[in-house]
Amino acid sequence: MIFNLGQFNLWFADRMRCHSFDIQHIAFDKLEKWGFDDRFGNLRHTSGKFFSIEGIHVETNSQSLTNWNQPIINQPEVGFLGFIVKRVEGKLHFLMQAKMEPGNISFIQLAPTLQATRSNYTRVHQGAAPPFLEYFRDRRKAKVLVDSLQSEQGGRFLRKRNRNIIIEIPEDEILPESEDFIWLTLEQIHELLRRDNVINMDARTVLSCLPPEFSDSVEPEKDEGAPMHSLRDILSWFTELKCKYDLSVRTIPLGEADPWVIEPDRIFHPSGNFFEVIAVRVEADNREVRAWTQPLLKPCREGIIAFVVKDYEGEPHFLMQGKVEAGNFDIVEMAPTVQCLTGDYRRVADEDRPAFLDFVLDATSESVLFDSRQSEEGGRFYREENRNRIVRASADFPEMLPDNFIWVSLRQLKELMRFNNVVNVQARCLLCAVTPELLAA
To answer: What predicted TM-score, i.e. pTM, was given to this entire model?
Structure first.
């Protein structure tokens, strides 16, 4: 086992040096086993597995733009995102893999022990099975710490969920060795989260679901009063938003998703905003299949994901928004204070400008608790990077909030993350970076 970050740095650099990767943009007609179907013009795999790029028409009363068309990823199967953990000298160690994904910035990032769609682990690609899969399919000798279905990006996926799972094995159990896997403590992972694009999105969402009782961080003793809102009141606010907002989503042929344009090598919006659909050819010597082609979603610009946080009665509270996205399972999910993943958020008209965006962008260095760039999931998104920030509220921060915002304590958020489709993936991934030491800064 590796216990210090100096040794980690050497190992990580070695993984980058030892493997060979090549990603090439190609035209859609050069895709192998992928194509536009004759009936709807949707982009799909010939097996009917993996995922497809389809068109949807969206109608909602949650924003100034009330209806639009767009491409979206339809991947109805539930995948595994899982960690194997064990205790060493009383501390939890997480088994992480140096995983190549075609859309990753710098190719390799740290991923969970297991990161696999159903099509991957049932070997539709006719490649090898993912390492350690058997530990998650037969858990009779493991203790389950986390096991929940959690949503993916609602603006890009149509009602997509993955199984987020953490299992603990006995300290004396020896796993098969692999040069691409490493044991890290939670403290080391939090340190690596301050670096840009090292810990991948799938690892961050699973780690965020870890209950506080399993964390190595011990919060200092303090007199905590009641939270600003009871959990009952928060759930009532959440339910009220689901009743207030309408969301109608119906699938349409991809070729009819006006004004999106389909060209031989990309699908794009004429405004230059949002994202493009592209095709790539991939070669990687450390994957279950050494070469393949696939579509990816390519962002047009960097986004921003941010929390405003403040103390109330001695306990940190995060400003959450109830956000409607086209692919949400149940209309609304709890999102970060600011979530701008598409378009040019710096040039948005005043009437459409996201609440608290300027406060987050203009925050002084003293009030910024966390600031790094983190990428989205590299198996579906091509080099998508978002600025992640946590900012402390100033003394003059508004007391009156828009109806779709509410303060939620950290303990309450951890409780809400035990349930499906409540806290969205952007919020979960940013909450992964929160430690008592960060909040005490």
So the answer is: 0.94
